[in-house]
Design goal:
The chain has about 200 residues and is an alpha+beta fold. The protein has helices at about 5-15, 30-40, 50-60, 70-85, 85-105, 105-110, 115-120, 125-130, 160-175, and strands at about 25-30, 65-70, 130, 135-140, 145-150, 180-185, 190-195. The chain has a four-stranded antiparallel beta sheet. A three-stranded antiparallel beta sheet has the order 2-1-3. Strand 6 (about 180-185) and strand 7 (about 190-195) form a beta hairpin. Helix 5 packs parallel to helix 9 (about 160-175). The chain is globular.
């Protein structure tokens, strides 16, 4: 794999103890990376990728299957490196396709009757429906939440973790909190903290 063509992916894999084979017990549902691939304008070119990663992209697992979180992250970084030349463009794309996911009929009716507080109360359970091997704690405040995730060293890089936050932000915006904002407070190799503000337009200035 050419580190010039894949700078983010190369940097990520070098940070892991066993590259793509790191932390097999830390997993996510295949539907997460399948949705990302489905919303690409053009398919990824996998010819120069590690064969293990290329196989996950060329022949995606069933949506209900569990895949290593490292591979899920690697797919997102492959997308970032091949298609988006800057981080902001990549995160904007994640926001857009996440919004469209929650606008689909199967989610739209459910989210229409959900409040941000109700969403926050079930956030840990919903996260565990799609991820395992990552601890997620949520503290509900007045009009906001403060959250912490703990995970194996470097299983996420900063960019893909911010992408997760864009998906969480899209979920809150699918409720009546149309302008909800999720802010990354701190990011370290094994722990990240973030804040969700449900109604920033009403927050004291």
């Amino acid at each position: 794999m050419d580190p010039v063509l894949y700078p983010r992916l190369t940097r990520y894999l070098r940070s892991l103890p066993r590259g793509l084979e790191s932390y097999p017990d830390c997993e996510s549902k295949a539907t997460l990376y399948r949705e990302a691939l489905r919303h690409l304008a053009t398919p990824l070119d996998t010819r120069d990728l590690d064969p293990l990663l290329a196989a996950y992209i060329d022949d995606p697992l069933p949506v209900s299957a569990w895949v290593p979180e490292v591979l899920n992250t690697a797919v997102y970084l492959t997308i970032a490196d091949q298609i988006f030349k800057n981080d902001d463009a990549f995160l904007s794309w994640v926001s857009d396709f996440s919004r469209r996911v929650f606008e689909a009929p199967m989610y739209r009716i459910l989210m229409r009757v959900a409040s941000p507080e109700r969403l926050a109360k079930g956030a840990k359970r919903r996260w565990e429906n799609f991820h395992r091997g990552v601890d997620y704690d949520v503290t509900i405040l007045d009009g906001a939440t403060e959250s912490e995730m703990r995970f194996p060293p470097n299983v996420y890089d900063r960019l893909t973790f911010r992408a997760h936050l864009k998906a969480i932000e899209a979920a809150y915006r699918a409720t009546d909190a149309k302008h909800a904002v999720v802010e990354l407070v701190s990011f370290e190799p094994t722990v990240a903290r973030f804040r969700t503000i449900w109604y920033p337009e009403s927050a004291p200035r």
